[in-house]
TrEMBL record, chain A:
Residues 359-569 form the Rab-GAP TBC domain. PROSITE patterns: TBC_RABGAP (PS50086). One of its GO terms (cellular component) is cytoplasm. This is TBC1 domain family member 15. Residues 199-236 are annotated as: Disordered. Interacts with non-phosphorylated form of RAB8A; phosphorylation of RAB8A at 'Thr-72' disrupts this interaction. Interacts with ARMC12.
Automatic annotation (TrEMBL), chain B:
Keywords: GTP-binding, Lipoprotein, Membrane, Methylation, Nucleotide-binding, Prenylation, Protein transport, Transport. Its main location: membrane. It is found in: Endomembrane system. This is Uncharacterized protein. Belongs to the small GTPase superfamily. Rab family. GO terms for cellular component: endomembrane system; vacuolar membrane. It is a lipid-anchor. It comes from Punica granatum (Pomegranate). It comes from the Eukaryota. GO terms for biological process: protein transport. InterPro entries: P-loop_NTPase, Small_GTP-bd, Small_GTPase. GO terms for molecular function: GTP binding; GTPase activity. The keyword Ion transport does not apply.
């Protein structure tokens, strides 16, 4: 069933027609059983949903899926259970202990204060259940939908009202008068206490709680509450700088005590600075470009600038603390030290770390990329790789012959083939022709690009050819200088990036979704700005993501960036932090000049060629470390370039749980 | 803001990949043709000031990726369009056959208030190739299609040689201008709105 959606065999034109009927986004069909099931003790299951999932760690691939149930007991008691599935872990790292830790069992709605619903335009919906105690459970992601239904069911059994403050907050058993409710039960200390200061997210109190924010170590009052989060918003504070730094630091649970103290200080300094400047400006009606900001050129064009909310994570300072200076690329001699006598990479993690911080010398890229891309295994020997190379060459030739042997007569009756070939031929002649390697008429490497792409479109006929692929292949062929080797490296890359080109665009949608969550986490004023200006679809980052910034840097820099990304050293999704880093670099300009969607798109497209890669990589590293688990929780499992989730995992594990 | 909106005319160029959308746009705006344009990824636009009888407008020309797979992006890019340009390659039959698809796709995604009368302009591009000897879609056939869709103005162009590009975009701008709701436009008396509407059915005099 799924196959038909994910690998539509129809060709583009046919598909486009079917697209008119609306597209399917990340369907993971499974059973939705809401019919009442009989429970022991006269309890009745009034709601049941499978594949409700939490993301407990920094690895997006690590998730705990389970079954969510609402059980009615007696005439008025409504109980919520969420029981993780047993066995069949998505990842071995998740222990039984984690499973027990996160289990939600027998939570009565008399103890629930509110339910916050997140309904992103892209990606999975989730809810955060906040208890009367102020603690909150980690976000429950509804992989198979059903949030609306969940709320509807709750509403049938308990008194549920929508908050007047925020349409996505539903208050449980809240009988106070509406006015009081808006002020008290939502707890808006930030909004109240600092109303005169341009704090981030003053307008959306609970809404700005990022997933897993506020992890509360101190509150041990509930025995089973290790999985609970403190959902209560902050104490009333009078020092806005302190408030922000705490808020930011709480988000970053990975920050060590030492780092906390250091940054706390840094934040205070920078924020005090920022506020002083902002206030002064307001007093004098000056343009509010933060003078302490590095981006000097931002000041040069200031037609209708408006006050910009300060960056909650001051960047230059942050990079000082975390982002390491870039190192020299890995060279030949050093490379040899990573290999044993038979050519195995002894410590792949150390190697990846080394490359993460410095990249690879160009003439070393050929062997190293094959490892990074996953074409060669790190523990393979020279001899094994030589052998593989030969086997793979034959295999490549076989696939290539499939299209080579299509005769002109046959092609006449083979529209899909003709169209695909035509599309590829049109694109290879528009790919990197200014690089000498691809320059000039009748360039042999351009022909190779065509042959490899056409062969790939036979190797993966379902995916076929899609624009952007030639951009991804070009540097690979440039480095590998061998047709078959390039092909297999490209295949390895497409194992991860294939979903970018899916007909339903699900890989792109989940990345855009994750990006919006990360910006929300790491720069909520910017997020709010995008929200207000109808930019939350993040389509202006589409090109960045589709082809991994291929068009944003000059050729050599692209290769450097790619090898750093491919190490997957700090995160499989460093590229998303690269996006955030770039956006943050230009945030003041974006908000100060009040860019609308069109202007922003034009601006972002125009950044091509003008971004300082090393600086951005340092920023991205710092952001990735800071965001930690909370950042990872923003990224839905299976988001490229993660290897795809095997479908089986989500289905087979339903019936072995206890109530 | 309101005045800016009045001044801005948004035009979307659609058509199969490789028919010459990017080249046409660059030829019109920058008076340049290059064999080295890259395939468009995502979307981009160029702007050009155009003058109509003493009044200046900004023509914002949107160029999007031609592959059908990317059409889900259309919603974000097509909205607020004032005119849609459909381009095909006179040497590629399929690109002509797909015009209908592109037109419908646009109407669905942009959902203009008055789809019946939304202004389109069709361009048959690359007429320079092989001195016209390799063309497979005749002018007659193209014009017949345009007539059947409510007299869509039709031009034959060459982005490479700059042939007819200026004239085509003049017509495009004119049609975009007509699409603006009248109450929103501060037209100086010298512009004859009614006259413009008459011209429409006659194929924009061009
Ligand atoms: N001979 C000729 N080639 C053209 C013309 N317009 C575009 N091309 C070429 O056709 C290819 C695709 O053009 P491009 O503008 O990128 O098409 P798009 O995909 O529709 O944007 C490029 O190689 C152009 O150089 C034209 O009028 N005449
Ligand atoms: Mg183009």
């Amino acid at each position: 069933m799924q196959e038909a959606e994910l690998h539509d065999l129809s060709d583009d034109a046919d598909y486009a027609a079917s697209q008119l009927q609306g597209s399917v986004y990340m369907t993971r069909s499974d059973s939705t059983k809401t019919s009442s099931t009989t429970e022991p003790e006269g309890a009745e299951v009034v709601y049941l949903k499978d594949n409700v999932t939490i993301h407990p760690t920094q690895f997006a691939s690590e998730r705990i899926s389970g079954r969510l149930k609402l059980i009615k007991q007696g005439s008025s008691l409504l109980i919520m259970n969420w029981i993780p599935y047993k066995g069949q872990n998505s990842n071995a790292r998740l222990s039984e202990k984690d499973r027990n830790l996160y289990t939600i069992r027998g939570v009565s709605f008399t103890d629930v204060r509110s339910i916050r619903r997140h309904t992103p335009t892209l990606g999975w919906q989730y809810i955060i259940v906040v208890m009367s105690s102020g603690l909150a459970f980690p976000p429950l992601y509804f992989y198979s939908g059903g949030v609306k239904e969940f709320l509807a069911t709750v509403k049938q059994h308990v008194f549920l009202v929508r908050s007047a403050e925020d349409a996505n907050v539903f208050l449980v058993n809240d009988f106070e008068n509406p006015l009081q409710r808006t002020l008290s039960s939502l707890e808006l200390p930030r909004a109240v206490s600092v109303a005169n200061v341009p704090l981030p997210s003053t307008s959306t109190p609970l809404g700005e709680l990022p997933p897993n924010e506020n992890q509360d170590a101190g509150d041990g009052s509930r025995s089973s509450s290790s999985s609970l989060y403190n959902g209560r918003t902050r104490q009333k504070v009078h020092d806005p700088a302190r408030d922000i730094s705490i808020q930011v630091l709480e988000k970053f649970s990975l920050v060590t005590r030492f780092a906390r103290e250091t940054t706390s200080q840094l934040f205070r300094e920078s924020l005090n600075n920022g506020f002083a400047v902002a206030n002064e400006r307001r007093a004098h009606g000056l343009s509010p470009v933060n003078s302490s900001h590095k981006l000097v050129h931002e000041a040069e064009k200031a037609p209708e600038e408006v006050p910009v909310a300060p960056d909650p994570i001051e960047f230059d300072k942050l990079t000082l603390v975390w982002g390491q200076p870039r190192q020299a690329p890995l060279g030949l001699e050093e490379w040899a030290t990573y290999l044993d006598s038979e050519g195995r990479v002894m410590d792949s993690k150390a190697l990846r770390k080394r490359i993460f911080y410095g990249g690879v010398d160009h003439h070393l890229r050929k062997p190293v990329w094959a490892f990074l891309l996953g074409y060669h295994a790190y523990d393979s020997t020279d001899a094994e790789r030589d052998y593989l190379k030969r086997v793979k060459k034959t295999e490549y030739e076989t696939i290539k012959r499939q299209w080579q042997s299509v005769s002109a007569e046959q092609a006449k009756r083979f529209t899909k083939f003709r169209e695909r070939k035509g599309l590829i031929e049109k694109d290879v002649v528009r790919t990197d022709r200014s690089i000498s390697f691809y320059e000039g008429d009748d360039n042999v490497n351009v022909h190779l690009l065509r042959d490899i792409l056409l062969t790939y479109s036979f190797y993966n006929f379902d995916l076929g050819y899609c624009q952007g692929m030639s951009d991804l292949l070009s540097p690979i062929l440039f480095v590998m200088e061998d047709e078959s080797e390039s092909f297999w490296c490209f295949v390895a890359l497409m194992e991860r990036l294939g979903p970018n080109f899916n007909r339903d665009q699900n890989g792109m949608h989940s990345q855009l979704f994750a990006l919006s969550k990360l910006v929300e986490l790491l720069d909520s004023p910017l997020h709010n700005y995008f929200k207000q200006n109808d930019c939350l679809n993040y389509f202006f980052c589409f090109r960045w993501l589709l082809i991994q910034f291929k068009r944003e840097f000059e050729y050599g820099r692209v290769m450097r960036l790619w090898e750093v990304l491919w190490t997957h050293y700090l995160s499989e999704h460093l590229h998303l932090y690269v996006c955030v880093a770039i956006l943050k670099r230009y945030r003041n300009r974006i908000m100060g000049e009040q860019m609308d969607f069109d202007t922003l798109l034009k601006f972002i497209n125009g950044l091509s060629g003008g971004i300082d890669l090393d600086a951005i990589l340092r920023d991205a590293e710092a952001l990735c470390i800071c965001a930690g688990e909370n950042g990872a929780a923003c990224i839905p499992p299976g988001t490229p370039p993660s290897l795809p989730i095997e479908n089986g995992l989500l289905y087979a594990q339903q019936d072995d749980e206890v109530l | 803001m309101a005045s800016r909106r009045r001044m801005l005319l948004k035009v979307i160029i659609l058509g199969d990949s490789g028919v010459g959308k990017t080249s046409l746009m660059n030829q019109y705006v920058n008076k340049k043709f290059s064999n080295q344009y890259k395939a468009t990824i995502g979307a981009d636009f160029l702007t050009k000031e155009v003058q109509f009888e003493d009044r200046l407008f900004t023509l914002q020309i949107w160029d999007t990726a031609g592959q059908e797979r990317f059409q889900s992006l259309g919603v974000a890019f097509y909205r607020g369009a004032d005119c849609c340009v459909l381009v095909y390659d006179v040497n590629v039959m399929k690109s002509f056959e797909n015009l209908n698809h592109w037109r419908e796709e646009f109407l669905i995604q942009a959902s203009p208030s008055d789809p019946e009368n939304f202004p389109f302009v069709v361009l048959g591009n690359k007429v320079d190739i092989d001195g016209g000897n390799s063309r497979v879609v005749s002018e007659k056939k193209a014009k017949a299609w345009c007539a059947s869709k409510g007299n869509i103005p039709y031009f034959e162009t060459s982005a490479k040689e700059g042939f007819n590009v200026e004239a085509a975009f003049q017509c495009i701008a004119k049609n975009a201008l007509k699409n603006e709701p009248e109450e929103e436009i501060y037209l100086p008396d010298t512009i004859d709105v009614a006259g413009g509407q008459q011209q429409r059915s006659s194929g924009c005099e061009c």
